[in-house]
Every structure is written in C-alpha cells, then in structure tokens.
Amino acid sequence: MRTALVIGTGLIGTSAALALAGRGVRVHLADHDPDRARTAAALGAGTDAEPAGQVDLAIVAVPPARVADTLAGAMRRGAARGYLDVASVKGGPRRALTALGCDLSRYIGTHPMAGRERSGPLAASADLFEGRPWVLTPTPGPDGGTDTEVLNLALELVALCRAVPVVMDADAHDRAVALVSHTPQLVSSMVAARLRDADETAVRLCGQGIRDVTRIAASDPGMWLDILSANPGPVADVLAEIAADLADTVRSLRALESASEDERGGGAAGIEDVLRRGNAGRDRVPGKHGAAPATYEVVAVYIGDQPGELARIFADAGRAGINIEDVRIEHATGQQAGLIQLMVEPRSAEGLTEALRERGWSIRR
C-alpha cells in the first residue's frame, strides 16, 4: 500500500491516518467539514489535498447512516482500487450498498474494536489500534464476493495499525457488538443518569466502583445515537434479557424485606444466583494480551498526588525485578492522595510488598 484516502477525520479515521502516515503511506484526508481535515493534516495524519489519481485504499470513517452513500460516491468516481469502512455496525451498510447497486467485490466491511470517550481528530492517536481486535467481514460468495486483492489491502491496513485481524460474518458481528459494546454504553449511561438529580451528599461518596461503571457514560450522545440507530434490534434483544434479570432481582430484593423467613431465603438465593452468574461471565473476559483470564495478587499502595510518584513506584518495582501485570488507581475524594493497586503474579506479591516497604511506601492490606 503506497497511497490511501481517509474519508472522515474523526477519532478513528484520523488515528488510522496517523498510523499509516507514520509507516510511509501517503494519506489524503477528506471530511464534510474542511476544518477537521485541516486539523488532522496539521497533526501529521496526511494531506488535505485531493489525490491526483486513484489511491490504493479508501477508508470510510463516517457515521453508520452515511457509510453507504459515502462509499457509493467514492466508488462512482473510481477513487481507489479497494474500499472499506470502519463503522461499528456491518450488516446494515452492506445491505444498503447492495440496494444501491454497488460492486461489493471491491469492498470489505471492517470494525476496529478501539475507541475513547472523546471524539474528533484532536483525540486521535497513531497507537489507538495496537493489539486491539480489528474485525473483517468479507462478503461471501464466488460471484460478487470480496476480491482477494481487497481483502489483502484490508489485512495490510490492520498490520500497519498493529491491530489483530478477526474474520466474522457481518450479522454475527452486529449481534456480538450489541452485547460487548453497545449495551454496556446504554447501561453505563442509565446508571450515570441516576446521579444527575442525586443529593450532593450521595455524589460526594462516589468511589472507584461508580467511576468504573460510569466511565463510558462520558461519551458523545450524538455519536452513540448514530451507532444505536444502526443496530437497534440486537441491542434491544440484549437489553430485554437484562430487563428480565432486573425484574427478578427487584423481586428478590423486595423479598429480603419480608417478614417471612421463606421469602427472605428465596430472595437471598435469587441475589446470589445473579451474582454468581456475573462471576462466571466476568471470568470469560479475555485477560492480558487476549489470553485466558489470569488471577493476579493485588498489592495496594498509598500514593500522593504529585509529580513523579507513579514513575517512582514503577521504578522501585522494576528494581525488585517484578513485572507489573496491570494497574488501577483509586482516587480519594477531597484528598491529594489515592490508592494504587498493582496486579502481579501471585508468587511475586510478597517480594513486591517487602521491596516497596523497604523503600518507604505505605502498603495497605
């Protein structure tokens, strides 16, 4: 791949352009808002000048509702040898392209499983996709199916962005992201919405749990309305199952208020069931580098909110010869301090604890 055209210079489009430009591909940038394309170009993502001729690959990074029309327009003017989109839904755009009479042999639907709460070119990063799954949904069939050259261009894009290719059926992809991406966004927003009118004393009690649950509720509503409007059925199916669990859980909690010992026992069993099913589901979430979930020991350390503290604790762990597998920080409300949780292999926990104590760190049991 020598040349590429990125149509849509938001977070995903600009991030892909930055990755390609950084690896020697000449990238042309286009956007319905010329200022966004100029911003992306100023960041080093390419040039906002039109290509002189046909490019190798056109990457359409626009909202799902605009994918088909944008692709069709690029195909009509022969903008590229191959075309792909990076929208978060795949079945709808393909069906719309078919209805428009487009040549699907020159197209492949893709979806990089990466993102941030912020949007726009200023939020972009060349390493956004590193190590993340990038779904490819080639059109099946010997007649009109995705051409091998186009598939290879898509695979090259994934490699240049240092992502991990995953091949799926388009509709299976849409059902999957409804569960692992779209529904979590709505649930996070629903929980966060409870805080809007909550008493200030309750809000001041917010800890790491509510921060974790509501993190993605900071996402752009307009962007998510576009996504959810393109995949409403599968998301509604998952929410209906969650609604059934919620109804059962409400009944179980009400039963715990009952004067009847039998009803309280049934309520407790219902709560325990949903918690244990949650444990089982959480255990299936892939761990570090996509491997099977690992069990780590947590070494919790008090840390001051001042420059250099994180670097110092990581350096002290490195001097002890211990690899930090993961890390989380809990911020103390109203205090210039927090709690850093260092996840390590169980056999390393005792050594790390002793090494950090020797260097003056306060360890929390």
From TrEMBL:
Annotated metabolic or biological route of this protein: Amino-acid biosynthesis; L-tyrosine biosynthesis; (4-hydroxyphenyl)pyruvate from prephenate (NAD(+) route): step 1/1
The reaction(s) this protein catalyses: prephenate + NAD(+) = 3-(4-hydroxyphenyl)pyruvate + CO2 + NADH
Name used for this protein in its record: Prephenate dehydrogenase
EC number(s) stated in the UniProt entry for this protein: 1.3.1.12
Composition bias, Basic and acidic residues: 273-286
PANTHER family: PREPHENATE DEHYDROGENASE, PREPHENATE DEHYDROGENASE [NADP(+)]
Region Disordered, annotated ranges: 257-289
Family membership noted in the UniProt record: Belongs to the prephenate/arogenate dehydrogenase family.
Keywords in alphabetical order: Amino-acid biosynthesis, Aromatic amino acid biosynthesis, NAD, Oxidoreductase, Tyrosine biosynthesis
GO molecular function: prephenate dehydrogenase (NAD+) activity
Protein's UniProt keywords contain NAD: yes
Prephenate/arogenate dehydrogenase domain ranges (all copies): 2-293
Domain of life of the source: Bacteria
InterPro entries: 6-PGluconate_DH-like_C_sf, ACT-like_dom_sf, ACT_dom, NAD(P)-bd_dom_sf, PDH_C, PDH_N, Preph/Arog_dehydrog, Prephen_DH
Species of origin: Streptomyces pactum
Pfam families: PDH_C (PF20463), PDH_N (PF02153)
Matches recorded under NCBIfam families: PRK06545.2-1, PRK06545.2-3, PRK06545.2-4
Domain ACT: start-end pairs: 298-365
